[in-house]
What we know:
Elements: E1 7-8, E2 17-23, E3 33-38, E4 42-47, E5 52-58, E6 64-70, E7 73-81, E8 85-90, E9 95-101, H1 110-113, E10 118-123, E11 130-135, E12 139-144, E13 154-157, E14 162-167, E15 173-178, E16 182-187, H2 189-198, H3 205-208, E17 216-222, E18 229-234, E19 240-245, E20 249-254, E21 268-271, E22 274-275, E23 278-279, E24 282-287, E25 294-298, E26 302-307, E27 312-319, E28 324-329, E29 335-340, E30 355-360, H4 363-366, H5 371-376, E31 382-383, E32 390-392
Amino acid sequence: MSSPEPIALPNPPNDGITSLQYIDNNNSSSQQLLASTSWDGALRLHDTFAKTHVLTHVMECGPLLSMTSSSSSSNKVFTGGIDGSIRQFDIATSTPSLIGMHGASSSSNNDDNKKVACSALSAIHDSSSLIASAGWDSKFHLWDVRSSNKQPVITLDLPGKAFGMDTSLDGTKVVVATSGRKNCFIDVRSSSLSTVTTNNNNNDKENSQQPPPLANMILQRDSSLKYQTRCIKFFPSTQGIAIGSIEGRVAIEYLTELGIPNNNKKKYAFKCHRVNDTIYPVNDIAFHPTHGTFATGGADGTVVTWDGNSKKKLASLAKLPTSIACLAFNRDGTELAMASSYTFEEGERDHPREEIYVREVLEGELKKESPERARSGIRVNVRCTKSCPDVWGANPVDWRGTPPKI
């Protein structure tokens, strides 16, 4: 069976694409919305069923660096701007509104006061009202989008600028990757409880007690990769995280410090998105919603899928004209959206125009191998290091081969 071809969507962004996300719409079987943000400051919606452009709205906050949406509020999209603003866009009415702002300390100098960009946004799963944000001001905020006072309900200090963030599917944890190769884990399990408690008028004993803290920093540790983090994602099971770096590597790390069992698995890392001696950054990681395998998008313009459990490369899905800036699977994992957008890893130069592609995903390209087949098949190279014990190469080779130096 031949591989499906990527299809370019009409009216793509005019500048660097920063995020992609499918909008959950349980009430529609005829429309599948894909939202995108970019450095041109506009939020765009496309219908990937009809392959049509739905709308473009300039959010009036400068370049947009981040975006999220809540599965509980399918008609709302939230954007993070370079001016530090978090804005809500109502799809039904095409109306934007301000949720709040990131801001530098008043003691900062003039240059630092400009470094307030909201670089990461993520909705708290299982909550219809809580949004997490992190920014270049080294702050983490939780916002209740129902509030009209435009103030965060909690603020935590981060050890550096936020480069990436994700929330666990069970709605209990947030991970933020910052400058200095730090990964910060924040417990938000009490957030939804506190929101319910403070909005419940019943006079029972539970509601008469002081609400618990909204969020706590429960773990801060160094990335096992030696270079700057580009993206970070929780496993669907929340057992661990996948980290992509500028050095063409992905690390798989587990969370035993948080009491999460991992069946004695060890952290490891592997090389990817390399062409001969040229190393390209890993710009994004997207987990398949059903199989738990994942895809990586690199600045070499390729999208590759991996089975982290068996440490195998599954398939190469696409080779696009320029860097893969971001990826997103639709709700059932049958379609993958890919942003082909130069990420300036080679500095200022001429480059292909920005494009958003969608591609049908075949089950064999993402499905995990059975344990029996994994034991009998060809594996990738493994080599041990102190920082990441099981390091494996990007391309499958005969297991009898000599591992390359790392």
